[in-house]
Amino acid sequence: MGISRATITSCLALALFLRWGVSLFPYSGEGKPPMFGDFEAQRHWMEITVNLPLHHWYFNSTLNNLDYWGLDYPPLSAYHSYGLGKMFAKLLPSSVKFGTSRGFESPLLKFLMRFSVSASDLLLPALIVFFSVFKKLKGQHAFPSWLYITLALSAPPFILVDYGHFQYNCVSLGLTVWAVICLFTENISLGAVAFTLAVNHKQMSLYHSLAFFAYMTSTLVLKRADLLTTFRVGTMIISTLGLLWLPFGDYWIYVLGRVFPLKRGVFEDKVGTFWYALDRVTPIKGVYDDTEVAQLCAIVTIVSVLPSAINLFLRSGNPKLPQDDLLKTFLLCMFNTSLNCFLFSYHVHEKSIMLPCLAAVLLTPWYPKEMIWFITISSLSLYPLFHQEQSHIALLCVTSFFVLVAQQGKIITMNGIRSLYGILFLASVGGYLFLISGLHFITPPGKLPHLFPALIALYSFLHFIVFSAWFHYNQLTDGRTRAVKATPAQQGRKSTKKSQ
Ligand SMILES: *[C@@H]1O[C@H](CO)[C@@H](O)[C@H](O)[C@H]1NC(C)=O
Fold first, then answer.
1. pTM (two decimals)
2. Ligand 1 atom 9: the closest Cα is on which residue?
3. Taking phi first (over 0 means left), then psi (-120 to 50 degrees means alpha), and beta for anything else, what does residue 442 get?
4. pLDDT over 90 at 417, yes or no
5. Which of 192, 292, 338, 460 allows an S-S link to 381, with CB 3.0 to 4.6 Å?
6. Which domain holds residue 323?
7. Is 67 in the pocket of ligand 1 (CB under 6 A)?
8. Of the residues 60, 76, 104, which one is the last residue of a structural domain?
9. Where residue 21 falls among pLDDT bands split at 50, 70, 90?
10. CA atoms of 173 and 189, how far apart (whole Å)
11. Where are the transmembrane segments (predicted)?
């Protein structure tokens, strides 16, 4: 089943159309002085990195007051801002002038910033990379190519957070996918470098680190006992870290303090994590010492990710396991560990659901129904965030499009209403739509002004914890029998024939 150039072109055109469509909507903090939002944060980092010497970037001083959007991502993000800032200084100098450019907003700046997201998204070949993963899978799974690419490229969380809210997560996510491909094409050193870069662009990528660590140590040490490669991989990782961090010299400790902020509490806003849910029952945030809470979170998170990671470690060490099964276990571990990190770790933001979603996109050929469902509810869990920023319509449009594609691909079959999946999917999305309507049309009681965003967070938590349990079960009981036997399109064709 070849893939024609026309298919690729149309899928890419569609992907660009969705992305630029979303970027017409407002961004985080648009026209909201004095602090604005994520858009201003990114612009401010360009201003800081272009105008101040490197050791000032993460260091609080009268020149760089960190209370105003201090850099809180690792060095590669800062270098990325520096590179973009240099370009902006040429194209629109007033937008990065030191001190006077705070809150700078103009239609041209909005266009340039949106364009820089698009360029970062394409430059680090996230799009092409998604495609290559598919190519690798094509031999084993007869999943229709147009369907996989269209679904992967229209998954709403990635589009909305980067092109709507305003961030550059596409870089670290793209690097992570690249790393997965490297590992499974026998290029472990390059994979290690790509993943190290991902973690150094967004520390959130650490959610995926356990899967990489378990796989690499087990493959190199347990399976191959290949000391030379182990040494080479280790050297590559350390050199990459050195290149990124050494320029900061003695100031590296300040960088670290900014990247892992203890003082910002166990969660930021209403978010579907365990700690937020627990906080509704018995208050934690602001009651206990942040350091103690962070330690507790760390312990719970580590315990919760161990079963999945150990399973991957043992399976990777097994020389008889076919490569395709190993890839599936790796991706399941990536999904399970990152979802548990989302649920249990310290200071989690709503948008971090993108990390399990990335694994979900890669797992779609094996578990089309479940993963489409997961990505759909993850998108809807972001509704309150986008409602605040007035781009909820964009969220609903892209999500509807995504569901429609899945429906066209016969993954969600509406004549399967009698089937359990159809009922569950409709009920779960219906629940979201009910809560979303409540948010818009029902005035909450005076004592609970944030009733509906809180209910959406709790409803999402319920979904996430069930998905975590179900896929742990799948990973730990092997789940080989559950692999897709026929393509969704073939299954669909069979059922339409019956109904005719
Ligand atoms: C940073 O320094 C400014 C003064 O330059 C001070 O007002 C502010 O509280 C400091 N912030 C932090 C996070 O230390």
1. 0.92
2. 67
3. beta
4. no
5. 460
6. 5-30+105-244+266-484
7. yes
8. 104
9. very high
10. 18
11. 111-134, 146-163, 175-199, 205-222, 234-254, 293-314, 326-346, 366-386, 393-413, 419-439, 451-473
